[in-house]
Each structure stands twice: as C-alpha cells, then as structure tokens.
Design a protein that fits this description.
By secondary structure, the protein is α/β, with parallel strands linked by helices. It has 9 helices and 8 strands. The radius of gyration is 19 Å and the shape is globular.
C-alpha cells in the first residue's frame, strides 16, 4: 500500500495481542468478499451517517475507525470530509485503498491503542467495530482523546439480545457457544460513563434481516468476518447432521413469508466531546 501507517502494539499482554490477531485474521480472510455479505452493516452505517451534520465545513477531519473495505470512508469523502481510514486488518485497508485511492489516508490501528496524537479530528465515525473490544470504555476514551473538544463521536455497536434466534436454535443442538455475547444497555451506559462521555445521545434499535436458511445467515457472518468468538467454543466445523439439527431448530422462527429472521439489537451513540 502507498501510505499505510502501522500501529504499535507495545504495552499489550500476549493473550490480548493473540486475540486481536485472531480478529484481524478473521476479517482479513473476509476482506475480498466482505461487501457481498455486508447488507446489514450498510444499513446500520447509513443510519449512523444520517446523524452527522448536513453541512461539512472545509477542512473538517474525520476518522473512520474500523473502516473495513472503506465503504463509509468513501461516503464521508463524498460529504467533503478529509478522511483517515483506520482498521485492525491490513487486508481490509488494502480493499479500502482500492476503493478510495489517494483521496483518503490509511492507518493500521487497534481501537484500544490508537497511534494518533491528541485532538487530531473534528469527527470520529465507527460503525459496528467496537463490539470486538474487550472493554468498550477503552476505545471510547481513545476516541475522546483524538477528537478535538467540541467535536463529534458517532458510533454503533451491537447490544445484548443480538442474534437471539440463532443462539436459541444452537442451544437445542449442543451445549457449546456459537454466538458472541454482547453488552447490555446498562453496561454500554456504564462504559460511556467510565470513558467520561456525559454528553451522549443513545438509541437502541432492533434491526431484523431475513434469510432462507440458517446456513445462509452463517455464511453472511463468515463473509463479514464475524466468526471470531471472544468466549471459548467447540473447535472444528459443524458436520452435516449438526447443520440439519440447527436448520430444524431455527425453523421454529420461520415467519409467514417463509423467511428466517435474524434480529440485531443495535446501539447508536452520538457524543459531543467536552
């Protein structure tokens, strides 16, 4: 890549670094095919984008944290922002640069340890990235640090109850965990308080996607790189009998249109930096 800066990883414990590497690798494997499976991500990101000011003053600097393939970096560029696209995955950044070219700058970075000086950006935008962090307050503190006083921080993340249909179906198949656990509304509000973000507007919105089969949903989750579990799970791929049992269990949720719902509980946050 032409101008990707590399994040330092000093000061991190080895298990955490390995965990971050596993997340980066999962998204890296998905990078080339990510956009085909990213309908939900697009929908959430556009809802978050709608919360930005309509008018963009010249020279307004925006950080797109967890930029993925650069889709929303491009949207921010179209709105007149000077964009830094940042992601944990180098492969994602390569896709972002293919999309946005020299119009943006690119940074390989861990949201919990941003290699960025204080007060560099007017706006930070991060959609469906912070749920991969162990402690939500940490990346929020980092965003607060790199955004100028009076600037805006916009984020979306997943909350407790996301993919409950898939989780309940798996519970009927085996005792292993197959779906990530997400923070409760109370825990998200606590993280904001711990990060020193009192001036925040929060919305919790359920968004339901529809699939023909459970396997179709899981292919989407794999296609967007969302296959890394923070918690322990059974190793190896599911066999045919296991998948058949999952489809049978998930079938209980099938709606009147013959579709299987996958419901996400999405938290939208708009923070005015003090």
């Amino acid at each position: 890549m032409t101008n990707v800066m590399n994040a330092a990883t000093h000061g991190q414990h080895e298990p955490q670094r390995q965990d971050k590497q596993a997340i980066a690798e999962a998204f890296g494997r998905a990078a080339r095919h990510y956009d085909k499976a990213a309908a939900f991500q697009r929908q959430v990101g556009h809802l978050l984008l709608d919360k930005l000011p309509v008018v963009t003053p010249a020279g307004t600097r925006a950080l797109d944290l967890g930029c993925g393939t650069g889709y929303f970096s491009e949207q921010l560029l179209h709105r007149g922002y000077q964009v830094c696209a940042a992601d944990l995955s180098l492969q994602m950044l390569q896709q972002a640069e293919m999309r946005c070219g020299q119009a943006a700058s690119y940074l390989e970075a861990d949201a919990e340890n941003l290699p960025i000086d204080d007060n560099q950006f007017d706006i930070a935008f991060t959609s469906l990235a912070l749920q991969w962090c162990d402690d939500l307050s940490v990346p929020l503190k980092e965003l607060k640090r790199v955004v100028k006083p009076g600037g805006l921080m916009l984020f979306s993340t997943l909350a407790d109850g996301s993919l409950f249909e898939l989780s309940r179906a798996w519970q009927q198949v085996d005792q292993y965990q197959h779906v990530n656990e997400f923070l409760s509304q109370k825990a998200i509000k606590l993280a904001l308080a711990q990060a020193g973000c009192p001036n925040v507007g929060l919305e919790f919105t359920p968004i339901t996607m529809h699939y023909t089969t459970a396997v179709e949903l899981m292919k989407d989750l794999k296609g967007i790189g969302a296959t890394h579990l923070q918690q322990e799970r059974k190793a190896g791929l599911a066999g045919r009998k296991t998948i058949q049992a999952l489809e049978s269990a998930y079938d209980e949720f099938r709606d009147e249109n013959g579709q299987l719902p996958a419901t996400y509980q999405v938290c939208f946050g708009v923070i005015i930096n003090d």
